[in-house]
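Long-time lurker. I teach an intro course on protein structure, and each term I like to show students one example going from raw sequence to a predicted 3D structure in token notation. This year I'd like something fresh instead of my usual example. Would anyone be willing to generate the tokens for the chain below so I can use it in lecture? Attribution to the forum is fine with me.
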Amino acid sequence: MTTNISYYAFPAAYMLCILPHWYAIGLTKSSKDLPGFKNLSPREFIVKCRNLEKQTPVVAKYLRAEAAQQNGFENLPIFMASIVAGNLAGLDTGLMNKLAVAYLASRAAYNASALLIQYH
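-- Reply from a regular --
Happy to contribute to a lecture. Here you go:
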């Protein structure tokens, strides 16, 4: 019998959602292009960065990281509900494990592409 690890994907998925935000915070601390960040009002800072006349590559990367974080948290409840529904429906444990790992891999790939690909 295969051990059901699909529920363990929940904290892993959460971490994949929050990591881009932590990366973005790191950018604010290491770049002079992103001054004045306060974690009390991060959305206001995002708007401020979007409205800059000249967006440097660091600012663009910051905005992509925050967008990746927002995208992750927007689809996290759907992923969690899918895992719960699949397990309650009695789907094969091996299939559920593979689907959970596939989601985590796609989330990691999405984050990597958002942070590594330079848009012009």
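Some talking points for your students: The chain is about 70% helix and 0% strand. The mean pLDDT is 92.
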